[in-house]
Amino acid sequence: MSLAERENPGLAQEEMRAHPWIMYREDSRSKEETPRRRWGVRKRATAIAVVALALGLALGAAVLLLLLESSLTSWSDSAARRDANTIVAEIKDDNIKDAQQYLVDSARSGQYAQILQPNGSVAAGSVPAATQTALTALRPRSGQTITERVTDLRIAPGEDFLIVAVGAEVGGKSYIVVVAKNVEAQARTVMTVAWFIVGASPVLLFAVGLGVWLLVGRSLRQVEKIRGQVAQINARMLDERVDVPPTADEIAALARTMNEMLDRLQQADREQRRFVSDASHELRSPLATLSAGLEIAAADPSGATWQDMKDVLTGETSRMRVLVEDLLTLAKTNDGGLRLESADVDLDDVLGDEVRRLRATSSHEVQAQLDPARVSGDVRRLGQAVRNVLDNANRHAVSRISVGVRRDQDLAVITIDNDGQAIPVDERSLIFERFVRLDASRARESGGSGLGLAIAAAIMAAHGGWVRTVEAPDGGCRFELALPLAGAPAVIQLDEAL
User: Fold this and answer.
1) Which has the closest alpha carbon to 183: 220, 225, 148?
2) Within 13 A of 429's CA, how many CA atoms are on the CB side?
3) φ and ψ at residue 34, rounded to 5 degrees
4) Domain 75-187 maps to which CATH number in 3.90.1150.10, 3.30.450.20, 3.40.50.920, 3.30.300.30?
5) CATH classification code of 339-497
């Protein structure tokens, strides 16, 4: 709050009423600037594991209780039917009195049996209480079986019973055999299992949650250790590496991947530092020449010194311009900014133009055998690559340069030979790096900045081709440049070819 607002609170309230959007904007900004707190991986993993297990336990418990109840009910029904059919058989084999004696002898706890007359009166019962009134109102016909479940039997109120009634005909008379089986024990069994599941589930959920919490925490400690080590690595400590745990799991793979990334970063940093150092070294010489020349020319009021040195200074300026252009070209190839205008290119025509240029400027004999070959690419960039390789061959040739192009399956292969010394095998991949000069004969004074072959290799790679150096059949130096013919797939990359 400003000083005016503190001295005059009414002013602040009046402004709020006049411009309510001001407070809304400030509140919105404060809400946006306050990050929402989110659960970490450890909490989320534990919560998901516990919730998933709880749902699984609930579903499994429901299925288990249903199956258990169904199984116990089926068993009770089968037992009651079996007893009822046995009593029917006794009635058919003996008279009612003998069947009544069988009911008494076969009576068991939790089960009552009756033999009823068709009018519903009790002919016999397994216990005295079952001889008074009928246990059920079911009246099946002869050979028919009917079941029902009741929760309040007259002789045992408050308990669950399964009643099976079977109709039978003996000596022309109809009877009904009733067996009432107590199923309270089965219900208690189901309830006991249910309470056991309810009591054991929290313990199981706690154990699983604790296990997941500890396991994820142990894994995250390794991740946090790796994160802490990586956080301490800066541009001055690129040689540091993270510790790889001896677990042979995803955490160890992450640590190895981080170390591989650090290796690449360190290598890129070395290359960048070397590139900057070499570029500075290359620019220092023409800059020193220009600076000294300008100082000397400025000290001579007659202007004669300027007339003597202007050709030298112009040459150094041209050299700097070419060097800067080469550096920009390499920078574009590194960051993917090199734009290629793709079109059908007659490679023999491109080589023919470069050969004519070389013959006009070189003191060496230039031979050419050019077969027709059409590729797809940027004609200007392809000409630049060929020109750089030809200029390199011209600098190191003794007396002769041979240029050829031929079709080899899906490739157009350019060969540029010179009768100079062949490049040693162990140094053939180095010459395509920036600012590389292998010996004194390839020094700065002989021409070039050490960037021409690197540019040629980058341009060929951008066209899906490659460039390499081998020994010529006559023992001289040969460069081979390969490009896919128009309509053919890209060939192997530069690093695979070298």
Assistant:
1) 148
2) 6
3) -85, 110
4) 3.30.450.20
5) 3.30.565.10
Query: How do the domains of the chain map onto residue ranges?
Result: 3-33, 75-187, 250-332, 339-497
Supply the angle between the helices 9-18 and 20-33 in degrees, to the nearest 10: 90
Q: In whole angstroms, give the CA distance from residue 360 to residue 358.
A: 5
Contact 344, 485 (CB under 8 A): no
Please give the CATH architecture assigned to the domain spanning 250-332: Orthogonal Bundle (1.10)
339-497 has the same fold as 250-332: no
8's enclosing H/E stretch is none
- The percentage of the chain sitting over the pLDDT mark of 70, rounded to a whole number, equals 84
- pTM: predicted TM-score of the whole model, two decimal places: 0.49
Contact 155, 167 (CB under 8 A): no
Q: 177-181, 191-195, 276-280: which has the minimum mean pLDDT?
A: 276-280
Residues recorded for the chain: 498
**Closest residue by Cα to residue 175 from 183, 166, 184:** 166
Identity of the amino acid at 442: R
Determine how β-strand 365-370 pairs with β-strand 400-408.
parallel
pLDDT confidence of residue 334: 64
SS3 of 289-356: the string is: HHHHHHHHHHHCCCCHHHHHHHHHHHHHHHHHHHHHHHHHHHHHHHCCCCCCCCEEEEHHHHHHHHHH
Question: Residue holding tokens 């009552």?
Answer: 112
Contact 319, 450 (CB under 8 A): no
CA 315 – CA 173 distance, rounded (Å) = 137
Q: Which helix (H) or strand (E) holds 109?
A: none
Residue type at 19? Answer: H
Cα torsion through 153, 155, 160, 163, rounded to 10: -70
Q: How far apart are CA 59 and CA 218, in angstroms?
A: 31
Report CA torsion sign: 55, 57, 61, 64: positive
Q: Of the segments 134-143, 154-163, 447-456, which one has the largest average pLDDT value?
A: 134-143
Q: Among 109-123, 343-357, 438-452, where is mean pLDDT lowest?
A: 438-452
